[in-house]
Amino acid sequence: MSHRKRQKEALRREREERERQAREAQQRKRMVGFGAAGLLVIAAVVVLVIVAAGGGGGGSDAAAESVLPDGGSVPEQKEFDLNTAAEAAGCKLSSERAKSRQHTRSLSQRINYDTNPPTSGRHYQEPAPDGAYGQAPQDEQLVHNLEHGRVIIWFKPSLSKDRRADLKALFDEDSYQMLLVPRPNMPYQVAASAWNRDPVPNGTGRLMTCKRMTPEIFDALRAFRDEHRSNGPEPVP
Fold first, then answer.
1. 49 to each of 111, 122, 139, 176, how far by Cα in Å?
2. CA 171, 20, 206, 199: dihedral to nearest 10 degrees?
3. What CA–CA distance (Å, rounded) separates 195 from 144?
4. If you ran DSSP here, which 8-state letter would residue 57 be given?
């Protein structure tokens, strides 16, 4: 294993441990602060979230399984530098200063984003659940996910079944703070977007677009994920 790869793996493990400890500490505080009635409310909310995620096309329903089947495979990561990996995959990297972080109160308020797929801007007040989707939530929700430090991988649903299965395998490899979403109206086979916190207050949208899905694209997506995940203007574990 190369020194660069060992370093990336060590950083990833350290980040995951910090995130795990933060989640556990937050959960302990929540459990102490709420009584039995509060726990019942939390349980009810969890049930509603699960039902909503299933109905919205997330990773657990039959529609998602047909669009993103299991059984795919991905090659072992060889390239960890984002610029090098993107170039090898024939993908383009771009960035754009975010213009707003304001919220909308209704999903009927549609936003015309400057890029396709979007990377930043005004968005709906509630994000979508993380996960792999057979049917995409609205852009306005997904942009809120980006603000929270998520990375979204977008794909053409017209890709072959084998290629969609491979993307699902990549998602399953490391799904923390990730979304995998179909996007039929983009001019790329695969893309990835993120929203960085710098410069404050609005940050910068990041985009990687790939006209063709090649074997090298998996390292490009991994490098983009590792470069930008957990770096949103409003980080949420």
1. 25, 23, 19, 17
2. 180
3. 10
4. T
The tokens of 57 are what? 């096309």
Identify the helix (H) or strand (E) that includes residue 145: helix 139-147
- Give every CB contact of residue 117 below 8 A, 6+ residues apart in sequence: 139, 152, 154, 183, 186, 191, 193, 207
Q: For tokens 């990687």, name the residue.
A: 208
What's this model's pTM, rounded to 2 decimal places? 0.77
Tokens, residue 159: 């890709």
- Could you give phi then psi for residue 54, rounded to 5 degrees? -65, -45
Residue 20: what pLDDT? Answer: 67
Q: What is the mean pLDDT of the segment spanning 46-67?
A: 53
DSSP assignment of 151-168 equals: EEEEE-TTS-HHHHHHHH
Residue-range domain boundaries for the chain: 66-228
Residue 76: both structure tokens together: 């072992």
| pLDDT value of residue 11 | 64
Q: Are 204 and 174 in contact (CB under 8 A)?
A: no
The sheet carrying 91-97 orders its strands as 91-97, 204-210, 190-196, 151-155, 178-182, 131-132
Q: Which two tokens stand for residue 111?
A: 């936003």
